[in-house]
Structure formats: structure tokens, C-alpha cells
């Protein structure tokens, strides 16, 4: 697995198991226990056949692991609607007990940490859950292209990779040595999965197997299959392989449309560091659903529109200058795929940073002012319905505000730090420090505090764990400007910039009214630069 970087965990808010009516099934999927923590996955070797007519899967996953704590039992996950055919270890069948989606596998003797690496071959079959509205709900998508040929995909973020293959379904563990994905599909179709294409083989039974190899650690929900009558487009940009798999009728359109990838790569690599999966290459794969950040095989279903299916989520018009799915889902290669949260309760580490990458892309291509306009256009998408941070250990995500509010938090932090050289160095160092690693929110906060030389904890705490947005109140008293923060926690502190007499001035409000020492005759002389800070100003 990726090395788990974790500082001492501090809950800012009291979260209770019972208040949300969570079940044992939730804790089995989201929690950590000896049966999960006692082994470290080194590699997955997946070999399956997909039958489009039956909408079924049959095959196996060979799981190679090392023992990190003595145990005679491990947990592997597979949705309960799927059948366990057999689990083989040293040529013998293992016994197991199913508990919802968790499968507790018993070994004939204790597995010791002194043993060499171990492996089990997990045979299974069944009809995986079909998504009703992928990618918002997890499952397979069985559809047809315009020519009536099968077009199959899968998206399981949040729902869990165990929906369709046996796996340790926890973001705390990724295979150190990558994975192989071998998928047999009916002749005339192609399967595209993560990593590099290793060749195909006609199985002489009406099926052809397509073999793919991933060298880097990979999120289990990122492992994917894409089945269609694809045409392959190849390019190389500054030493990075760019591959596109699209439906035949879209070949010409795709050649032109995906040129956007090159300036995107220039931007993201300058700000976030080298593309983190160069060994596996970069791919966009056309899908019948909107998109998903499948590592090195990004699912693309935006129909070659600019914006989000032709719409601008920022409401500013700027969102129509780029393909939202290409930019957003590719941003996940750095934030989500390379840097991964150990619990989906911290999924803002994926989504907030990635939505912020859209703002970064706008700044790279259109300049700072347009980037700030785009950023502030995202305010209308924030509901402040519940905290961004979910409940740990229960496979529970926080509010969808993790996207826009997470991005606005980062934009706010940039202007709190108030030094762009320091900010961009911090972001680059963050990306490189935690490249191919698994972290949590406390790790992010500690890193930002250290690298900025500031105590940013109260700001993170307010925006991630609370639903109220800081309100800045100003008044004039005896010719002086007074300020305070309301709608915030008692320990909240954050500087903010104002303009007074055409000068930009930084003030430092607290919870109680305090004088800024600035001479002001009337409040109308003051303008708060709230385009740089996600705050409310009456």
C-alpha cells in the first residue's frame, strides 16, 4: 500500500455513530480492524470475462500481500450479490464467513510477519450492480453506441470497488507494485483499463482478452474497465505519452478537442509537479457516463463540449472556455489518485483541491482576474448544508460542498498567506511531498501551517467542520474603523484586506469589536476585497 502519513487525529466536532443510524454493514466497509490492518496488499492481478448479454462477470483476482501483524484471518470485500466460487491458498481451498460485503477468510495456520509474501487466488462470478445514474451512484453501465455495439463502463467511487471484484476495499491500502487487469470481451470489442497495453489474445471461444499493466500504486476504485468498439489515438507531448480511446464516429472531433490536454499539462506540471503516473501514461477514454478520475485511464463523457455538458457551473461564462471534465478529472491525477485520503470522510482532499485546479488552469490560460471571477462564481454552488468532513470509519462522505467550498477555502488561504511565491511553492511542495501517499486532513493542516509559518488551523476548522461562513462586520466609532468576525467559532482568526483611500490595507478582526486604528469618516469609504476571501459582508 502507499505509506500512510497520519498525524494524531483530532476531531473538531463531536460525531456520533448512533445519530446517523449507521449499521454494522457501514462499519465493516469503512472501518479498520485487525483482519484488514494485519496485511499489506502488494499487487492485484485481475483476470475476468465480461458477458454483455448476461451483464455478468466471471474470473478471479490474485491478491499478493505481506503480513504486517500475525493473524490467521483476513478481510477481503465483495458485494453480497456476487458469488464467491472459491478462494485458493497453496493449492487448497480456504474457508470463509460472509458478513454483508465483508468476507472473513480463515487460514489453516497463523500467518507470521516473518513469512515471505503470500497470495490468494479469489475466484468469483455474478451480475454486478448496474448504476442508475453513473457516476453519481456506483455500478456498471451497459449501453450501446450508435451502431448498436456494446459500450460498457464502471464507476464506483464512494460505493466501493468490491461492487465488482474482490479487494481490500479501503483507501488505506493500495497495491505497492501496481496491478494487472486482463479482461476478456466478445470479439469485435476492445477493453481499455489502467496503465499500459500489454497485448491481446484471441481465446478462440468468441472472446478476446485485453491485457493492461499498472506499475504505480492505484486507488482500488480507480481500477476500471471500458469496453467498446474504440479507435486509438496516440500523441506524445514533451516526453509524456497521451492516448485517447474514442468511438469511431468521434475520431476527428476528438483529435481537435483533446489538444486542450497539452496546455493543461503545462499548467498542472508547473504548479503541481510532474505528471505523477508517467510510467503508466495518460489516457482519456470515452464513456457513456459523464466522467471519473480513473488513474491513467480517465473516463471522459462530456460529449466534446466546453464547460459541463455545455453549461458553465460558475455562471461567469469563463467555465465555457475549457472542457470541465477533461480539466477536472485530470486534476485528480494529482489530487485523489496521487495524493489519496485514507478515509472518504476526508474526500475534500480529492475534490476541493481538484476543483481548485480548475481555478489554477483558468489563471494559467486567462490570467489572475479571470481566475478570481471564476472562483467567486463557484459560491453559488455552496449549500452549507452539512460539514465538508464526513464521519470516519463508516464509509461516509461529507457534504458535496467539498468541491466548491473546498476550492474557495484554498483560494482564501492563498490570500491569507498573501505571498504568491510562498503559496505556489507550498502547493508544489505539498504535491511532491505526498506524491503516491495516503494522508488525512490533519496532515494537510499541519503541512500548511509549517510551510506558511502561520497558524491556519482555525480557518481550516471553520470551513471544513462548520457550515457557517465568517461574517465581517464593520463600523465607524469616534472616527476609527472597527471590525469583528461573527458567525464563527470563538477561536477564529483571519486577516482580510480592504481598500481605503485607494490603498489596500490588511486588517486583523477578532470575535469582539476592535479598533483598526484607521481613520474613517463613513463606512462607505471602505471596500472589503471579498473576491479574495470566502466571507460574507453585510
Describe the structure.
The protein is of the alpha+beta class. Helices cover 22% and strands 32% of the residues. The protein has an eight-stranded mixed beta sheet. Strands 16-17-18-20-19 form a five-stranded mixed beta sheet, covered by helices on one side. A three-stranded antiparallel beta sheet has the order 3-7-6.
Compute the number of strand runs. Answer: 28
Strand content: 25-35%
Structural class, judged by helices and strands? alpha+beta
CA(first)-CA(last) distance: 49 Å
Give start-end ranges of low-pLDDT stretches: 1-19
Compute the average pLDDT.
95
Can you summarize the main beta sheet? 8 strands, mixed
Number of helices: 11
Q: Compute the CA-based radius of gyration.
A: 25 Å
Helix content: 10-25%
Give the overall silhouette.
Answer: globular
**Strand line-up in the sheet with most strands:** 5-4-8-2-1-11-14-13
Summarize this entry quickly.
The protein has 538 residues and is an alpha+beta fold. The protein has helices at 24-30, 34-37, 251-257, 261-272, 324-331, 348-366, 368-377, 404-417, 420-433, 441-452, 457-465, and strands at residues 39-51, 56-67, 71-77, 83-89, 92-93, 95-99, 102-111, 118-126, 139-144, 150-155, 179-186, 190-192, 196-202, 207-214, 226-228, 230-237, 240-247, 282-286, 291-292, 298-300, 339-341, 437-439, 471-477, 480-486, 496-500, 503-507, 514-519, 526-528.
Amino acid at each position: 500500500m502507499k505509506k500512510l502519513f497520519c498525524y494524531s487525529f483530532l476531531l473538531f466536532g463531536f460525531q456520533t455513530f448512533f445519530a446517523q443510524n449507521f449499521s454494522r454493514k457501514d462499519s465493516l466497509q469503512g472501518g479498520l480492524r485487525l483482519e484488514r490492518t494485519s496485511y499489506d496488499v502488494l499487487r492485484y492481478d485481475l483476470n475476468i470475462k465480461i458477458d454483455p448479454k448476461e451483464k455478468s462477470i466471471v474470473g478471479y483476482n490474485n491478491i499478493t500481500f505481506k503480513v504486517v501483524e500475525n493473524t490467521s484471518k483476513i478481510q477481503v470485500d465483495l458485494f453480497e450479490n456476487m458469488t464467491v466460487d472459491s478462494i485458493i491458498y497453496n493449492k487448497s481451498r480456504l474457508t470463509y464467513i460472509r458478513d454483508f460485503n465483508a468476507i472473513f477468510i480463515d487460514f489453516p495456520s497463523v500467518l507470521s510477519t516473518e513469512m515471505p509474501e503470500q497470495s490468494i487466488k479469489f475466484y468469483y462470478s455474478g451480475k454486478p450492480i448496474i448504476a442508475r445514474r453513473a457516476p453519481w451512484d456506483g455500478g456498471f453501465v451497459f449501453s450501446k453506441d450508435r451502431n448498436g455495439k456494446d459500450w460498457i463502463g464502471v464507476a464506483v467511487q464512494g460505493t466501493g470497488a468490491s461492487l465488482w471484484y474482490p479487494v481490500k476495499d479501503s483507501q488505506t491500502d493500495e497495491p505497492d507494485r501496481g496491478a494487472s487487469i486482463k479482461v476478456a470481451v466478445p470479439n469485435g470489442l476492445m477493453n481499455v483499463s489502467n496503465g499500459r497495453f500489454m497485448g491481446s489474445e484471441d481465446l478462440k471461444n468468441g472472446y478476446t482478452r485485453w491485457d493492461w499493466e499498472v506499475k504505480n500504486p492505484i486507488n482500488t476504485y480507480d481500477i476500471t474497465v471500458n469496453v467498446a468498439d474504440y479507435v486509438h489515438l496516440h500523441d506524445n507531448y514533451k516526453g509524456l505519452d497521451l492516448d485517447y480511446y474514442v468511438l469511431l464516429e468521434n475520431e476527428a472531433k476528438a483529435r481537435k478537442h483533446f489538444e486542450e490536454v497539452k496546455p493543461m499539462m503545462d499548467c498542472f506540471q508547473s504548479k503541481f509537479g510532474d505528471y505523477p503516473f508517467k510510467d503508466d501514461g495518460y489516457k482519456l477514454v470515452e464513456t457513456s457516463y459523464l466522467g471519473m478520475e480513473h488513474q491513467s485511464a480517465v473516463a471522459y463523457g462530456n460529449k466534446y463540449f466546453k464547460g459541463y455538458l455545455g453549461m458553465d457551473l460558475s455562471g461567469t461564462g469563463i467555465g465555457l472556455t475549457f472542457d470541465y471534465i477533461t480539466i477536472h478529472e485530470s486534476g485528480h491525477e494529482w489530487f485523489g489518485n496521487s495524493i489519496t485520503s485514507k478515509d472518504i470522510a476526508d474526500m475534500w482532499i480529492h475534490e476541493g483541491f481538484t476543483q481548485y485546479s480548475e481555478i489554477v488552469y483558468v489563471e494559467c490560460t486567462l490570467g489572475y482576474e479571470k481566475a478570481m471571477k471564476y472562483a467567486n462564481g463557484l459560491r453559488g454552488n455552496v449549500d452549507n448544508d452539512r460539514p465538508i468532513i464526513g464521519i470516519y470509519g463508516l464509509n461516509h462522505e461529507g457534504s458535496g460542498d467539498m468541491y466548491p467550498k473546498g476550492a474557495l477555502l484554498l483560494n482564501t488561504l492563498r490570500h491569507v498567506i498573501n505571498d504568491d511565491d510562498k503559496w505556489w511553492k507550498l502547493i508544489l511542495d505539498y504535491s511532491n511531498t505526498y506524491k503516491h501517499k495516503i494522508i488525512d486532513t490533519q496532515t494537510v493542516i499541519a503541512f500548511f501551517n509549517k510551510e506558511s509559518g502561520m497558524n491556519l488551523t482555525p480557518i481550516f476548522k471553520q470551513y471544513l467542520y462548520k457550515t457557517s461562513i465568517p461574517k465581517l462586520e464593520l463600523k465607524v466609532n469616534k472616527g476609527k474603523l472597527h471590525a469583528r468576525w461573527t458567525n464563527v467559532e470563538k477561536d477564529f482568526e483571519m486577516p482580510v484586506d480592504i481598500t481605503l483611500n485607494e490603498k489596500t490595507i490588511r486588517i486583523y478582526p477578532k470575535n469582539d469589536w476592535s479598533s483598526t486604528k484607521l481613520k474613517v469618516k463613513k463606512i462607505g469609504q471602505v471596500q472589503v476585497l471579498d473576491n479574495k476571501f470566502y466571507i460574507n459582508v453585510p
